[in-house]
Amino acid sequence: MEVIEKSVETRLPAAIDSEASQHEVIIQPTSGWAAIRLDELWAYRDLLFFMVWRDLKGRYRQTALGPVWFILQPLMSMVLYSVIFGWIAKLPSDNQPYAVFTYVALLPWDFFTDAVSSGTNSLLGSMNLISKVYFPRLIVPLSQVISSLVDFCISMVVLAGMMVAYRIHPTWGLLLIPFYLLLAAMTGMGIGLWFSGVIVRFRDFGQVVGFLVRVLMYTAPVVYSISLVPAEWRTLYSLNPVTAVVEGFRWALLGTGALPDWKLAVTTLCVVVFFTGALYNFKRVERNIVDIA
């Protein structure tokens, strides 16, 4: 779709009374790798808040248990994995109760998968809105990641209760939890943003992303300890961003594993480069995505 250069006044929901609904926007066609324009996110910050609130209400609407579902999901997964891998397979858990050992890993893992899903479906799932009004398209996946952060905080309350029950004291590394969450969000959103344009063209690629996520779960120490990985492969294995996040959570909350070192720095640099490329790719494919859909 060719966008003719002109000045327009943005039309946002009536509930939003902000600078974003008052300032003038110039829409013009772009070519090549257009600028990301992160400053637009700040200009439309009230729209971002509105979409986060809408997403949260949509999740809890017409459900019998409401927000309890977001506690039950990791809890049920933890019970299942504890029975299969902890009780039957008797996998090691670094001298920690296997239930807590697994639950600590499931929380960032669920947050990561939500970030993948939000980026993957950002264009296809909001096509009706995208085709009618201009706003920074990056707001769509970003709002879903922020709403997933609310679910994460609810689940952390349950984890705190489990740690009190097992008399486990977190380390000072607890201060690095926000950093590991950011690393998980950038990795997940990066994967999703790279696939977002492809899925609009070929809907079956959503299955590819789902398969990729399942593979990532078993190539990261979510349900097992990194001590099971052969020593000669452990350095390369640790460069996996999901591994870095999971092991970081366990180190910060349970005191298992080693202190963050150069491998975390290398992983972070790779994630930043990967995520930046995903942002530019997302900006490139969004300009004519309405015509394709």
Helical content stands at: 55-70%
Proportion of beta-strand residues = under 5%
Order of H and E elements: EEHHHHHHHHHHHHH
End-to-end Cα distance: 11 Å
Mean pLDDT, as a whole number? 81
Number of domain units: 1
Number of separate helices: 13
Low-confidence stretches: 1-12, 15-21
| Radius of gyration over all CA atoms, rounded | 21 Å
**Biggest β-sheet: strands ordered side by side in the sheet:** 1-2
The shape is globular
> Helix/strand/pairing class, anyone?
mainly alpha
> Could you tell me the number of beta strands?
2
Main sheet: strands, sense, barrel: 2 strands, antiparallel
Written description of the protein model:
The chain is mostly helical and 293 residues long. Strands 1-2 form a two-stranded antiparallel sheet. Helix 2 packs across helix 7 (139-165). The protein has one domain. The chain has 13 helices and 2 strands. The protein is globular and about 60 Å long.
Brief summary of the model shown:
The protein has 293 residues and is mainly α. The protein is built from 13 helices and 2 strands; from the N terminus they run ββααααααααααααα. The termini are close together.
Task: Supply the key terms.
293 residues, single chain, globular, 65% helix, 3% strand, 13 helices, disordered N terminus, two-stranded antiparallel ribbon, mainly alpha
Describe the protein's topology:
Elements: E1 6-9, E2 24-27, H1 39-43, H2 45-60, H3 69-88, H4 98-120, H5 122-125, H6 127-130, H7 139-165, H8 177-201, H9 205-218, H10 231-238, H11 241-254, H12 262-286, H13 289-292
Antiparallel strand pairs: 1-2
